[in-house]
């Protein structure tokens, strides 16, 4: 069953590019989370999306949010991706696609892992989601707009 706006975001624990375990609950009560699922490290669309989040990272931090990317790539692949593009945020390795399945992230064209961004508030509630394989920058823009809305509500 796919996670929807208004649902509590399911907790999970995955390994980051630095080898540490990261759980969604680590942020609850402290920060909003921009959780984005993407198909593959170092591909044109995924690089454009990651660099968009990188270029706006300080704005996300100023809004009280942490950016977390998830793909099925290994931690070693994430390390190389982070280094190559100077990505300042957390990338998590979901090698068995368990978290992708937990969130109900759909496949694109039935074969490619989908690209979906969830904006989760400090209480762990999904406040917005955006699903698009091709509108890379819009994932960043939608997240920023939602965070501004959360801040004033």
From TrEMBL:
Its main location: other. Signal peptide: none annotated. It catalyses: a hydroperoxide + [thioredoxin]-dithiol = an alcohol + [thioredoxin]-disulfide + H2O. Keywords: Antioxidant, Disulfide bond, Oxidoreductase, Peroxidase, Redox-active center, Thylakoid, Transit peptide. GO terms for molecular function: thioredoxin peroxidase activity. It is an enzyme of class 1 (oxidoreductase). It comes from the Bacteria. InterPro entries: AhpC/TSA, Peroxiredoxin_AhpC-typ, Peroxiredoxin_BCP/PrxQ, Thioredoxin-like_sf, Thioredoxin_domain. Pfam families: AhpC-TSA. The active site is at residue 46. One of its GO terms (cellular component) is thylakoid. Residues 3-152 form the Thioredoxin domain. The keyword Disulfide bond applies. Monomer. Belongs to the peroxiredoxin family. BCP/PrxQ subfamily. This is thioredoxin-dependent peroxiredoxin. It comes from Planktothrix tepida PCC 9214.
């Amino acid at each position: 069953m796919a996670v929807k706006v208004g649902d509590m975001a399911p907790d999970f624990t995955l390994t980051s590019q630095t080898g540490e375990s990261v759980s969604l609950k680590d942020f609850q009560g402290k920060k909003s989370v921009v959780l984005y699922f993407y198909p593959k490290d170092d591909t044109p669309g995924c690089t454009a999306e990651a660099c968009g989040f990188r270029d706006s990272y300080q704005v996300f931090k100023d809004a009280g949010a942490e950016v977390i990317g998830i793909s099925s790539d290994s931690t070693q692949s994430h390390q190389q991706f982070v280094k190559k593009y100077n990505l300042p945020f957390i990338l998590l390795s979901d090698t068995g696609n368990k978290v992708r399945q937990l969130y109900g992230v759909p496949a694109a064209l039935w074969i490619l892992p989908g690209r979906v961004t969830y904006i989760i508030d400090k209480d762990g509630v999904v406040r917005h989601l955006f699903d698009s394989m091709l509108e890379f920058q819009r994932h960043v823009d939608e997240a920023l707009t939602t965070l501004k809305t959360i801040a004033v509500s």
